[in-house]
Model the fold of this input.
Amino acid sequence: MRQITQSQKLRGVRYDVRGPILVEAEKLEREGHEILKLNIGNPAPFGFEAPPEIVEALRGALPDAQGYSDSRGILPAREAVARYYANVGVAGVTPEDVIVGNGVSELISLVLQALVSDGDEVLVPAPDYPLWTAQVTLSGARAVHYPCDELNGWMPDLDAIERLITPATKGIVLINPNNPTGAVYSAELVRGFAELAERHGLVLMADEIYEKILYDGAVHEHAALHARDTLCLTFSGLSKAQRVAGYRAGWLAISGDKARARDFLEGLTLLTNMRMCSNVPAQHAITAALDDPEWSGIGALCAPGGRLREQRDAAHRLLTSIPGVTCELPGGAMYLFPRLDPEVYRIDDDQAFVIDLLRATRVLVTNGRGFNLATPDHLRFVTLPTVPVLEEAIGRIAEYLATVRGEQVVAA
Done:
């Protein structure tokens, strides 16, 4: 009998955040082990409750949300998104320039399916949120990774990026604040990305889902403020700042030179229509969220004494106290991306290392190469658990790393 095999389009597509490491964790759970999960940025399991006004908006909309909406999304949600960008100074975003999606993930897929053809190239940061590389690959294009410099706070080098541009390059991805590093880019750097995209006629794709999760006075700069002579596509949503990842309520705001992109936008509209619409009840949460000037109290969670800030600080302190472990302190998002000194920890296969770590400690983290980093010397930690849980998890990891270094661990 002929075997049923996966599509050739999936060759080279990876998404390690939910890959073999998670499969091993689920196996251990079925065997009765409790796993401390520091692998996925999902606020709800860690006790971050959705703002009540957002829950109520969704609940109240249920009787009137039983049918399809406009394929772009309900008008009040699109108006709220357009109003939000107008209020921060982005020109030219109307409700017709907004598409509501089942999270940013769906919108990334739609955009790349509409934008790239076989053999095209898209510039993507390394490390990146791996869905970007996976979707570029699945769309038939090639992800060309531009490096971000850990010694310079994980900042990218615009000159180095420009040298990667070829006639096949169609777009450039800017993830700000970055996942997994938490780097927050300055206004000058964001402006440089926009100027680079304009010089070369590239579509600037700005993933800004963590735009409100900022620490230590960091300021987020919208890429759309600076891109006027090319197309700018801004992705954001409610999953992180409003702690409603399960609602799958994201949006795409289209700005810049839309006239030059008319053919692409027709293709994007076609794909948007083909999926009918995104989850309609969740769309009603967008209006409630964006009409709240405090963005549901996310600022207080990130301020000194706030839970997200305290957890970031505790996790960073604990990790960097381990011999041979260094970590840039992130200015945003909800992750740490520590480096394990290769002279101390000789890791050839970081996925295998993380699985061994999981089996020994029952702590689940993600390997750095799962984020398209070239070297096997980084891990990604989620900083969403409470401080006591972080202390327990990182304590177990510290003991395991001591055995890797060949030290004798003495039980307290």
